[in-house]
Design goal:
Blueprint (H helix, E strand, L loop, with lengths): L1 H25 L14 E3 L13 E6 L24 E3 L6 E3 L2 E6 L5 E6 L12 H12 L5 H6 L10 E7 L2 E6 L8 H7 L7 H4 L9 H4 L17 E7 L2 E6 L5 E3 L10 E6 L3 H9 L5 E4 L1 H4 L6 E7 L4 E5 L6 H7 L2 H9 L3 H6 L8 E3 L23 H11 L19 E7 L3 H16 L3 E7 L1 H6 L1 E2 L4 E2 L3 E4 L11 H7 L20 H13 L6 H18 L2 E13 L3 E2 L17 E2 L2
Helix pairs in contact: 10-12, 16-17
C-alpha cells in the first residue's frame, strides 16, 4: 500500500511538472506573475504602443560612471532604474502621476497631504511601508548631520521649512506644512517625484547621530549586491570597472495591459566608455543595442534604425557680454533694441537648411523653454523674423549711424561700432551661424570681427567658478540634466545668481538689478516655492517666456534633435524623447 502510494505520488508530481512546463510555454507571463502586487500600476498607450513579451538582454553605454549607488548622493540616470519615488512624471505628457503612492488626498484646510502607499515589496521581498517613507524623509533628507553631504553632492531637493511627515498606518502617511498650503503646489509634487525611497531595513543602521560618513559610504561601488534592495524596475546584479549589470526586479509594481510584469528585459548592462567616439565604434560593432547620437554621428548610421524626436534640452545661443569693460559696447549690449536688431539679422532656417546631411537632425529654436515642458506656450514667445530692414531701423533708433560715410556705423563719440564674435572651430553649424551673422550685420553697418577658436579657448573665455567673462560675443551652449517639469534648467542661466548667468555676471553682486532681471528673479522665487499653485506657476512661467523673448538676454539659435540609434529588433523605442532612453528602458522589448 505504501509502495503504491509512493509510486502514484511520483506520477502525480511528474504530471504537475509537465503541466507547469506546458503553462510556462503557452503562457510565459505566468512565470513572472507570482510577485506582482495586488494593486499594480498599469502602463498603457501612448507610453506603451504595443505590449511586449518578456525576455532578452539589453546593453547601452555612457561616458558617466556613477561615483556611488546611493541615490541621495548621486544624480546619475542609471539610478533611475534601481529606485522609485512616491510620485512620478510621465515622460511623454510631463504630468505628475501616482507611483509608489497609489493616490493622494488634500485636506480641507490644505495643510495636509495624505499619501496612500501602494502594497509593494523591495527587490529582496521585504514589504515597502510607511516606515520606509519616514526613514527617507525624516532620518535622511531632514537629518542635519547629513545636510552638508547631501548639498555638496548637488542635492537641491530640500524640503520646505516646517515640513513634516507622520505615519498613520502601514500604508498611510501625512505630509504637513506649517506655512502655506499644499494644494496643487508644483514644487511639492516635484519633490515627491524626485526623492528616491530608501529601504530602512538595509540602511537604517547606517544612519547614526554624529557619524554621517556611515551613511555617506553606504552603497558604494564596491558594496556587495546583497546589501541593496530596489523598488525600481531593476536590481543590482554586478559592478565592474567598465560596466554595471542589472537584473529584472521580479517584485516590480508595474504591468502592461495584458498583465505582463515590467520590465520586459531580463538583464540590462551599461558599459562605461571614455569618449562618444568609442561608444559609436562599439555600437557599430554590435556590442551595444542602442545609442544616443549627435547629428554628425547619425549621418553615418544609415544601416541602422534611427528614432528621431524633437529638440534636446541644450540650446545653442548667441550671448553678448553685458559687463564688457568698453563703455560704448557695454551700453550697446545692454540695450534690448540692439539685441532685437541682431535677432532680426539671423536667418535660422537658411543656416540649418544648408547643413547638408545634418539638416534632418537639427531644429531652430526661438525659446529656451522646451516644447515638451508643461509650461511651454507658443503665444508667449515673440518671433524675430529675418528682416534686415527692421534690424537697421532698430539700430537707427539707438543712435548709432554711419557718420563718415564709410559704410560702418559709429557711436555718438565717433568710434566705429565693432565687436569680436567667437565660437568653436570644430562645430560646423555654430561656425555657419557666426559667419552668416557677421555678413548680415556688415550689410547694415555693424563690423563683426569673427574668430573661430578651439573649444578649450571658448570655454576658458567664460570662467563659471570665478564668474568672469572675457569675451564680447559668442555662440555656445550649456548642457543641463534638469527635469523639464521643473524650472531649474532655466534658473541656472537666467536667475541673477544662476551658475550659467554668463551674459551679466555682475548681477550676482549688484544692489540694483535691472527691472526685467528683478522680475525674472521674483518669478523664479515664486514658482520654486511650495506656496504657488500649479495654475499660478503656469501663468508666471508664461510671463517669464514673454520677458525672455522680449528682453532677449540671450538669443536662442538652434538645437540638435534627439536621435537614438537602435538595433532593428528593439521594440517600443519610438516613444523615446528628449529625456533619452533611460526612462523608457522598462518598456523596451526585443522582438523577432
Amino acid at each position: 500500500m505504501n509502495l503504491y502510494n509512493k509510486r502514484n505520488n511520483k506520477r502525480i508530481v511528474s504530471w504537475v511538472w509537465l503541466l507547469a512546463g506546458y503553462l510556462l510555454i503557452m503562457f510565459p507571463t505566468l512565470a513572472y506573475a507570482q510577485n506582482i502586487p495586488s494593486n499594480p500600476k498599469v502602463v498603457k498607450s501612448p507610453l506603451l504602443a504595443q505590449p511586449g513579451k518578456p525576455g532578452g538582454q539589453l546593453t547601452d553605454s555612457s561616458t558617466r560612471r556613477p561615483k556611488t549607488l546611493n541615490p541621495m548622493l548621486e544624480f546619475n540616470e542609471l539610478l533611475q532604474l534601481l529606485n522609485s519615488t512616491l510620485l512620478e512624471i510621465n515622460p511623454i505628457t510631463m504630468e505628475y502621476e501616482p507611483a509608489l503612492a497609489e493616490s493622494y488626498e488634500i485636506s480641507a484646510d490644505r495643510k495636509e497631504l495624505k499619501l496612500i502607499i501602494r502594497q509593494v515589496r523591495f527587490s529582496d521581498g521585504v514589504p515597502f511601508t510607511a516606515d520606509d517613507v519616514l526613514f527617507t524623509f525624516n532620518d535622511v533628507l531632514l537629518n542635519p548631520d547629513l545636510q552638508p553631504a547631501l548639498q555638496s553632492a548637488g542635492l537641491f531637493l530640500i524640503p520646505p521649512p516646517g515640513m513634516s511627515i507622520e505615519k498613520r498606518s502601514e500604508r498611510i502617511v501625512l505630509l504637513k506644512l506649517q506655512q502655506g498650503g499644499v494644494v496643487n503646489s508644483n514644487a511639492l509634487l516635484f519633490l515627491l517625484a524626485q526623492v528616491k525611497m530608501l529601504p530602512k531595513h538595509k540602511l537604517g543602521s547606517k544612519v547614526q547621530r554624529g557619524n554621517p560618513n556611515l551613511f555617506i559610504n553606504a552603497w558604494g561601488l564596491t558594496a556587495d549586491p546583497s546589501e541593496f534592495a530596489s523598488l525600481g524596475p531593476f536590481k543590482l546584479l554586478e559592478v565592474k570597472t567598465d560596466r554595471i549589470t542589472l537584473a529584472k526586479n521580479t517584485h516590480y509594481w508595474k504591468i502592461d495591459e495584458k498583465g505582463t510584469q515590467l520590465p520586459y528585459i531580463e538583464k540590462f548592462t551599461r558599459i562605461f566608455v571614455a569618449t562618444v567616439d568609442e561608444a559609436l565604434a562599439r555600437f557599430q560593432s554590435g556590442e551595444l543595442d542602442l545609442l544616443s547620437v549627435r547629428p554628425t554621428e547619425a549621418v553615418v548610421l544609415d544601416k541602422f534604425a534611427l528614432v528621431v524626436d524633437g529638440p534636446t534640452l541644450s540650446v545653442n545661443f548667441l550671448a553678448f557680454n553685458q559687463d564688457i569693460t568698453d563703455s560704448d559696447l557695454r551700453g550697446l549690449f545692454r540695450d534690448m533694441r540692439f539685441r532685437r536688431a541682431v535677432a532680426h539679422a539671423i536667418d535660422r532656417l537658411t543656416v540649418l537648411s544648408h547643413a547638408g546631411n545634418q539638416t534632418p537632425f537639427l531644429i531652430a529654436r526661438e525659446s529656451f523653454v522646451h516644447p515638451l515642458s508643461p509650461y511651454f506656450n507658443e503665444q508667449a514667445t515673440l518671433k524675430y523674423a529675418f528682416n534686415l530692414t527692421k534690424a537697421a531701423e532698430l539700430l537707427d533708433q539707438i543712435g548709432i549711424r554711419d557718420r563718415n560715410n564709410d559704410g560702418i556705423r559709429d557711436f555718438p563719440s565717433g568710434k566705429t561700432v565693432q565687436f569680436e564674435l567667437i565660437t568653436n572651430q570644430d562645430n560646423a553649424i555654430r561656425v555657419s551661424f557666426a559667419q552668416q551673422l557677421a555678413a548680415n550685420l556688415a550689410a547694415i553697418g555693424i563690423k563683426v570681427n569673427y574668430k573661430a577658436v578651439p573649444f578649450s579657448e571658448l570655454s576658458n573665455r567664460v570662467n563659471l567658478q570665478t564668474r568672469q567673462a572675457r569675451y564680447e560675443a559668442m555662440i555656445i551652449s550649456f548642457t543641463s540634466e534638469a527635469s523639464l517639469a521643473d524650472v531649474s534648467y532655466l534658473f541656472a542661466i537666467f536667475h541673477s545668481q544662476g551658475p550659467f548667468h554668463v551674459y551679466r555676471f555682475s548681477d550676482a553682486t549688484s544692489d540694483t538689478l535691472p527691472a526685467t532681471q528683478r522680475r525674472i528673479d521674483e518669478i523664479f522665487s515664486r514658482t520654486m516655492g511650495v506656496q504657488a499653485s500649479s495654475e499660478e506657476s503656469k501663468k508666471l512661467l508664461e510671463e517669464l517666456q514673454r520677458l525672455l523673448s522680449d528682453d532677449l538676454p540671450l538669443i536662442p539659435l538652434y538645437s540638435a534633435r534627439v536621435v537614438i540609434a537602435i538595433k532593428k529588433d528593439i521594440r517600443n523605442a519610438q516613444v523615446i524623447n528628449v529625456l533619452g532612453p533611460t526612462p523608457f528602458l522598462e518598456l523596451i522589448w526585443r522582438g523577432s
